[in-house]
Specification:
Number of strands of chain A: 14
Mean pLDDT of chain A: 96
Keywords (chains A, B): Amino-acid biosynthesis, Histidine biosynthesis, Metal-binding, NAD, Oxidoreductase, Zinc
Largest interface: A-B, 134 and 134 residues
CATH superfamily of the largest domain in chain A: Nitrogenase molybdenum iron protein domain
Shape of chain A: globular
CATH topology of the largest domain in chain A: Rossmann fold
CATH architecture of the largest domain in chain A: 3-Layer(aba) Sandwich
Family (chains A, B): Belongs to the histidinol dehydrogenase family.
Number of domains of chain A: 3
Binding site for substrate (chains A, B): 238, 260, 263, 329, 362, 416, 421
Number of helices of chain A: 17
CATH class of the largest domain in chain A: Alpha Beta
Cofactor (chains A, B): Zn(2+)
Largest sheet of chain A: 6 strands, parallel
Strand order of the largest sheet of chain A: 1-11-10-9-12-13
Binding site for Zn(2+) (chains A, B): 260, 263, 362, 421
Radius of gyration of chain A: 26 Å
Oligomer: homodimer
């Protein structure tokens, strides 16, 4: 049952509790285990991957079996429907089109006295994409991670994903990978797969950036290897916050809340509405739509623990609560969503109006569905082409230009006690060393 | 003494050793200590800050003394020379001008059937800037962190820095902070100050992003709180790699190597040159310039452990070695640096030609001096305005636009076993619920 709260103080506390549901997890025991796994992968390489696959996936593999073969890649197309292949291809096309817009471009500016300043953008050399197994083995995850890497121009793109009980990788995942331009795929998952990407093994290359969601072990491993490699973010359970006014349709709102709750028993589904009647109607509709839900138990659990409908006095109050929560997904099911937008400060993605369910963005509108969770939208953004690129600052000074600022640099360097910083400028200004070459 | 290596295999091993000098540090004991400190700050707030300041800085403070007062801020201007104030103001101006270029801008695109897609950029609400004490208490650090936060439009900007033995904060640091628009400054440093910024205390506000360098305890604390707040990067000891040809001046090269080495006994200073004679001359010049160096012991130590001159066969070979190292700072002291640039893949900042010592970028050319270290330039970039901003994806679909992709979304959602994702679209397409409002 979706609870309804009408007191703002209670709502604030409740949203804080939901927001903190992962921050307050005790993970120290798991951290010890993950640290051990990473160390073992670093020292033992492939053998460690085989051992952990045996232990955690109950599957005996040889080194040669780690990589998904060309014939498995080909066969995947036979194992999914034509309709699904087309839907994956359509999604890829639309995701790529969006990600190609406003990608970072190198630039230089010419200043006085022949100075040049700029930024030079380049792709990382190698990217590793983690795709979860089991309940969360989704072709859409593959597209949302692989397409930006391809658009960025990453020359080596590698995927790891845990094998099923039969040793196979989900066919739809394999099709999505190929549609997005990834053919180097290893059937290995868990914290040990993150170790393989971070340190490299005999079979799996060390990469520069690791992206993709995973369970708590994968997330802890990503946090530990951050600094050795780059990572996209630390993904927590998914969340939606819907702001709805008198104009909203309770059937749609209920479906959107459930579409979040069905991901995970820890998923959060929050409604803020100015209409008490709407809250009640949504509560009813949630029950109706849960009736024959194939993931009913899991979804009910999420709604019970991390679902809530809050009746607010105004859309301004709703925006304030939303900004405190900083949701991953924000739906504005209100009469004028563009006006409401001015009140919003933090959200991973914002879905405008009544005909934009989160699902359209999850799959194919174009923007990335890998978004900051657990309040991280206060400071973080969607995964994007930038995740797979970096820039170098460019600086060129002429002798004259350096002369102009030489005193200021020496003053600053001396104030900081950095003698050679000062000397590196002073010596260049001294005629004595001007032509001092070998 | 700066070692000279002429064998490429030895050079590769040596550069790898230098690159890994921080990755292989055993930090587990320190991690336990830092975790304990963070937990104590989270539960005890201000009192923990006072206790740790007493313990680590041997200084007894009261809660009221944590914040630097208005009169201290005013007095700072009396305690530094006019020349230094002017140099700080000049640096601020030039750093700001560079950072104002190409800042992220919000955008939307209108598509078929009244769809709208875009990205909406906003600043974080609160930023916390860490400024180290002691040897590394630099006004330039303040400018390089504070100016981008100000340009981004962060409304609350807070600085923390450990107090000296007399309880005071470095006057030049206080001047730089004010020039860059920061007036909320707390005299507290170390891992506990990071905890204060991440969780908030009675006196210090919880922030959204923490930036700035620090010792190993500060860096470990930043890594641990990452996910609760955003961070800029995990800074390691500084490094320069200089590529020099027959055109280079050994006096300049030696000064630039020493300008890196003088930062820290773990700083790295690497020369790659096509000219064996230049390597020998630089080796001599390093000794000459070390003679009356005020930080001679520390600087010699860095040169001995993490300094090296490598004689390479060609600039192409130099570029390959440089790309493997992915240096924080790269100086191209060669005849045609812009041609050489095409061979470079990874570097935090690139200094072009003979009149661009790293010091010009460290202080006032404009680009940020907070750069990726320890090989992180393979995937990371300079601190910038982006560090203090984030974006929300914007998606708006019309009923017609949703209708167009409705089947594809349902196909994908069903393939992923996400019933309500599918339903959230199907129900919107069904006339039955069209006008179903409260």
């Amino acid at each position: 049952m979706l609870r309804i709260i009408t007191q703002i103080a209670e709502a604030t506390t409740e949203l804080q509790r939901i927001s903190d549901r992962t921050h307050n997890q005790q993970t120290e025991g798991k951290e010890v285990a993950v640290r051990e796994i990473l160390k073992t992968v670093q020292t033992e390489g492939d053998q460690a991957l085989l051992d952990y696959t045996e232990k955690f996936d109950q599957l005996t593999l040889t080194v040669d079996q780690l990589r998904v073969t060309g014939s498995e890649l080909d066969a995947a197309y036979q194992q999914v429907s034509k309709e699904l292949i087309d839907a994956i291809a359509l999604a890829r096309k639309k995701i790529e089109a969006f990600h190609r817009q406003r990608t970072p471009k190198s630039w230089v500016e010419f200043g006085d006295n022949q100075t040049v300043l700029g930024k030079r953008y380049t792709a990382v050399d190698r990217a590793g994409l983690y795709v979860p197994g089991g309940r969360a083995s989704y072709p859409s995850t593959v597209l949302m991670n692989a397409v930006p890497a391809t658009v960025a121009g990453v020359s080596r793109r590698v995927m790891v994903t845990p094998p099923g009980a039969d040793g196979k990788v989900n066919s739809a995942v394999l099709v999505a990978a190929q549609e997005a331009g990834i053919e180097e795929i290893y059937r290995v998952g868990g914290a040990h797969a993150i170790g393989a990407l971070a340190y490299g093994t005999e079979t799996i290359p060390k990469v520069d950036v690791i992206t993709g969601p995973g369970n708590i072990y994968v997330t802890l491993a990503k946090k530990m290897v951050y600094g050795t490699v780059g990572i996209d973010s630390l993904a927590g359970p998914s969340e939606v916050l819907i702001i709805a006014d008198h104009n909203a349709n309770p059937v749609y709102v209920a479906a959107d809340l459930l579409a979040q709750a069905e991901h995970d028993p820890m998923a959060a589904a929050i409604l803020l509405t100015t209409e008490e009647k709407l809250a009640q109607e949504v509560q009813k509709q949630v029950e109706v739509q849960l009736e024959n839900h194939p993931r009913r138990t899991l979804t009910e659990k999420a709604i019970a623990h991390y679902g809530v409908a809050v009746v607010v006095k105004s859309l301004t109050e709703a925006a304030k609560l939303s900004n405190l929560f900083a949701p991953e997904h924000l739906e504005l099911e209100v009469e004028d969503p563009w006006e409401m937008l001015n009140l919003i400060r933090h959200a991973g993605a914002i879905f405008m109006g009544h005909s934009t369910p989160e699902a359209v963005g999850d799959y194919l509108a174009g923007p990335n569905h890998t978004l900051p969770t657990s309040g991280a939208a206060r400071y973080a953004s969607a995964l994007g082409v930038e995740t797979f690129m970096k820039h170098s600052s460019l600086i060129e000074y002429s002798h004259t230009a350096l002369d102009d600022v030489s005193q200021a640099i020496q003053t600053l360097a001396q104030a900081e006690g950095l003698h050679s910083h000062s000397e590196s400028v002073r010596l260049r200004m001294s005629k004595q060393y001007d032509q001092y070459k070998c």
